[in-house]
Write a structure and sequence with these properties.
- The protein has 351 residues and is mostly helical.
- The protein has one domain.
- 81% of the residues lie in helices and 0% in strands.
- Helix 3 packs parallel to helix 9 and helix 4 packs parallel to helix 14.
- The protein is globular and about 60 Å long.
- It starts with a helix and ends with a helix.
Amino acid sequence: MATGVLSLERAAIPLDRARRALLVGLSRSAIARPLVTRRDQRIRLQALAGVALAVVLTLLAPGVLFVLGPALFGVAHVASDVRYLALRRDLPRRWTTALAAGCLALLALRGLEMALPGRWPFAATEVGLGWAWAFSGVCAGVAASRSPLAIRRALVAGPVILGLTIAALARPTLARTVFAHLHNLVGIGLWLLLFRKGRRFALPALTLLALAVVFCVSGRALPHVHFGGPGAARFVDEMVFAWPAWMPHRTALGIGLAFVLLQAVHYNVWLAWIPQEDLRCEGTLSFRMSLRSLVRDLHPVWLGLTVLLALGVLAASLVDVHRTRQLYLSLASFHGYLELAAGAFLFVRGS
């Protein structure tokens, strides 16, 4: 494994040379220099461009976003969740154990549901366990901080989580569908609450995203959407039949468009915006520095397994993209509750 890492570092040398030449050239431009030297300016432009591209692709190729997003970025963004919410944070050992146990429990529960469908109230068990895990993050955050500010934050987050828990347990099957759609907003919320200190820089991207989501959910986007591309027919079928029969098809499709849009932004948040926010410097890391940081955080063995799993999902997608997507989304569903639990802890404790 160490030999493989060294080989990757050597392979990155030409890329770093090209990167350095590009940055030197950009720094000579009065317009581009702030993007090289100031992180806030860089992330503001990157976020705005990322949202704009996601909006365009949602209108032109929703089916492509629907199937290729998880195949290309699914495993990587789950690894980024773990990295920036746990591995790079100074966490108490007990809370680290609780995070690992929660991930394994929810992963095992989905595995059992796939093996023994209908033999147990899996939906109720999952939402009960997941939201209880999120509430435990509030309690653990108070215990880890013990400051009046942490208690005030807990009094804000705790009742909200308890209310959502009660609502989810009342309609667990519907709650899982709703959470699958809305969990993409959790990453954006964590970016703003835990990582983005100058929030005014996020306003252009968030304003565009909010307008685009309203445009999609209202159904006004439907006449402008190209439904003839790859994966579009499957996208329409899954979005329509994911919801109860009382929901109009037009509304279901509008929500589906918002889902693929927010999913694309969600991947951007975890793979581009948050990694840059977590840097201690204003500039960007070289390819070799990024590789060393990954190895330091994930350990070569776990990094290697993550890469193999990502390649496995991509290879399986080439054989049967729809079945692979469903399998990935089912088994990776634990990461939504991981974001809630770890985010609640960090928010209450104060990062």
